[in-house]
Amino acid sequence: MKILVIEDDPTVRTLVKAVLEHRGNEVSVAETATDGQNLALENDFNMIILDLRLPDGNGYDVCQKIREEGVTTPVLVLSAEHETDVKIKILNVGADDYLTKPFNSEELMARLDAIARRSVPKGVEKELVCGNLKVDLIARKMIIHDNEVDLTNNEFNLLVYFMRNKGKVISQEELAKNVWNIHFDTQTNYINVYISYLRKKMREHTEYDYIETVRKKGFIFQCDD
């Protein structure tokens, strides 16, 4: 997911960014209400994490403004404020959830995942299934035999492309174009490197080799069903 973090506390900002990036998310940060509001209005994010107390304003106004401008991106508020009326006020101006500081990083991720699931429009594809392997398209994670496996953005995008083209021989040129949107360079080995990363994470939970190498042609993704 592409996530915007609007937080002036450098310690909290660094922690949240590190936790999110560890889960394979792409994170942008803003330290002020003005910068955060502008980023939210000018870019397409999957999630916004918003502090209430900012040096040049407050989270209430930011949330209300982006909602008035038609931004429907889910908003999770992080705040040291414990009062019920504070939570009600920010929820009433458009926030989707509220997490009190200090917080546990696992609870933060669980709340983001829950918001993401609720925010998926009806009819939008939520998962891909291939035998005992599933891909959660909302949480951006791989599930093998009920074991959740976190992937980097490149690993995740590579797996999704394989699963959507299962049973088909895919060349390195095709992967370079459709996964990375670049022209294939025969002098680089990055595609093989990411396939190796993906295989390694799979083999921690299964002996089945989903990705088979086809000599001089590329790769083929096969299900275990």
Automatic annotation (TrEMBL):
CDD domains: trans_reg_C. Residues 125-223 bind DNA. GO terms for biological process: regulation of DNA-templated transcription. Residues 2-116 form the Response regulatory domain. It holds the Pfam family Response_reg. GO terms for molecular function: phosphorelay response regulator activity; transcription cis-regulatory region binding. PROSITE patterns: OMPR_PHOB, RESPONSE_REGULATORY. One of its GO terms (cellular component) is protein-DNA complex. The keyword Transferase does not apply. Keywords: DNA-binding, Phosphoprotein, Transcription, Transcription regulation, Two-component regulatory system. Gene3D superfamilies: 3.40.50.2300, Winged helix-like DNA-binding domain superfamily/Winged helix DNA-binding domain. Residues 125-223 form the OmpR/PhoB-type domain. The modification 4-aspartylphosphate is found at residue 51. The keyword Transcription applies. This is DNA-binding response regulator. The lineage of its organism: Bacteria, Pseudomonadati, Balneolota, Balneolia, Balneolales.
